[in-house]
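Protein entry
_____________
===
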Amino acid sequence: MASSKNDALLERTVEGSVNYYCNHKCKGTANDRGLAERLGGHSYNILSNSDKHEIYLRDLRPPEHYLDSKGRHTVHFFGSRRRKFAGDERGHVQECLMHQDVHPRERARRDIRLETQLAQLENSNSYGGFQQRMSPQPPQPKRYTIDNARYANEKPKLRPSVTSKAEWLGRRGRPMSRSASCPSLSVTDPAGSLCRAVRDDLRKDVSQRQLESAHFAPRMSANTLAMSMDAVPLGREVAANHRSCSVNRAENYDFAITRKNNHYSSQDKHTRADPFYMRPRFGITNNSVKYDIVNNESRWFKY
C-alpha cells in the first residue's frame, strides 16, 4: 500500500498511523481495515447481493468485488468486460462518418476574396491601381452568344430614314421581291419561300410545330395530334399551301376585337375562325397561345 500519497499522511491515532487502502478509496488504521476485511471487505454481501444489513465500517469497505451487485464479473476477476480491438488503419468507418469535402470552387472563391481585399488595402486611394493589380493580364475578348430573340422578327423595327428626293425617285418603281419585316417571305412565291424557311431554320420548324392549329389525326391521342401535319398526307398538303406569316401581318387593334382581352379564348366572333388567332392544337409540348406571354409578341408561324 506504499505510495507518495500514503507517505504524505501525518495523521496518527492511539492504534497507529492512518493509511490509504484499495487504491486510495478507503482511509483508516490497519486495525480498522482488518476488522472491515473480516466483515467481508466490501460494502455488500456477495451471496445475497444486498447491503441492507451491512452497517459496520462502511467507509472502509469499498463497493468493488470480483462480482458486482448484479452478479456480473468485474475488472478484478477476468479483466474488463468490454473487448478492445486495435483501430483499423484504413479508416473505413471514419470515412463513412465524415461529410464529403466542399467543391474546389468554394476554396477558389475564398482565395479570390482574400486577394481582392489585399488589393483594396494596397491601393486604397487609387482605383486604377486596384484594377491593374486585379487584372495584370490583358482583358479577354467579350463572349458573344446567339441572340434568339429575333428568330421571329427577322428584321428590327422599321425606322424610315430621311433621304434625298433624287435617291427616293431612283428607288421608285423598283419591284419588291421580299417582305420588309420578314425577308424569308418571297412576294412571288409565299408558300414555297415559307416552307424553305422552315426547313432551313430549326427554330422556325419547332415554332411552327408548337403553334399549328390544324390537325388531321386519325386517332385522338397526344402523339398523333402533335405529329398529324407530318404523318397524314392531307396535313402535309395543307402545310405546303400556307401563304401567310405571322410576322408579316399587322394585327387589328379595333375596340370590337380587343374588348375580350384574349383572342385565343375563341369567344370573339370576329377572330374565332381566323387561323392567326386560333388556339394551337393539343399536344404535350405545345403552347396554349400563339404569342409570347412575356413580351406579348406574336411568334413565328405560317398559316
Summary: The CA atoms of residues 207 and 300 lie 6 Å apart. DSSP finds twelve helices and two strands in the chain.
